[in-house]
Amino acid sequence: MRRALSILVALLPTAAVAAPALTPSEIVDHAPNSAWTDVPEDRLVVMTLGDGGQVVIETAPDFAPVHVANIVSFARAHRWDGGAITRVQDDYVVQWQPRDEKAPLPSRIVAHPPAEYERSRQGLSLQGLAFFDSYAKAVGFADGWPVGSDGGHVWLAHCYGMVGVARDMPPDTGDGQELYVVNAEAPRQLDRNLALVGRVLSGMERLGALPRGTGAQGFYVDKAQDVAIRSVSPAADLPPAQQPHLQLMRTDSPAFAAYLNARANRTDPFYVRPAHGVSLCNVPVPVRTRPSAP
Questions:
Q1: Up-side HSE of residue 142: CA atoms within 13 Å toward CB?
Q2: Looking at the keywords, is Signal present (predicted)?
């Protein structure tokens, strides 16, 4: 623990911070409980695939409240039960849809949500990343989410594992029935062009390993290839024994600052020279299962 504490430093002020003594994974393993925060169950949605595998998604109502409310309503109405993953485009996205997109919309659904592609920075605490970004004047973490900013506004970034709403041509914004998750190097050109509504906290390895679609844009050409979805439910609606209990590392913690430093200055035996830099999406916020009470 003494080695871990010795590098729990403030966020990188420049790219020339001394190389850390521990690897990123070691820093995560040594992080104290105070560096972690519970993910509220009412922000989680659980997707169960046809083979029983589960994917846990944290929603982002502070960034896309109308879309997130739609998604929760769709889940409560069992809209995706019997639906399928129909698109797996290599180095891009995995996309899924409900059983019947033409069925009448459940009550409380906003059929045409506003373009929730960015929000005011007011009220958000932003931990900045001190490296150049090609897609935003500034990047960092706002309440634990990877974001870009122009100073007055912030927006969620299309990092690996982020979940967004598929849509038709503008001004359509999508109602939330068709969702996608980024399964590749960050397609940041999509930032502020679609509504990002959350991120996968558990089960991304299942989605990333799915067979790639061979049709246009990665869609499966044969319905037999579709990956069945057994159910999608708000975690809070599940029996207590089935609810996931997850924690995220606090991005305002000394442990995260050390983790960020280590991601930018790799000293693992494999590395010959540290990069002295890191991109926003190459700093995934660590997640873990909440430890049981002693």
A1: 21
A2: yes
Same domain, residue pair 278 and 215: no
Q: What whole-number distance in Å separates Cα of residue 70 and Cα of residue 102?
A: 16
- Give the strand order in the sheet containing 153-156: 119-120, 153-156, 145-149, 138-142, 126-128
Do 43 and 59 form a contact (C-beta atoms < 8 A)? yes
Residues 24 and 104 in one domain: no
Q: Is 293 within the bounds of a domain?
A: no
- Asked whether residue 48 is domain-assigned, the answer is yes
Token digits of residue 85: 């993953």
| Whether residue 253 sits in one domain with residue 241 | no
On the question of pLDDT at 118 being above 60, the answer is yes
Residue 269 pLDDT level (bands cut at 50, 70, 90): confident
pLDDT at 116 over 60: yes
Write the burial class of residue 261 (CB in 10 Å: 0-12 exposed, 13-18 middle, 19+ buried): buried
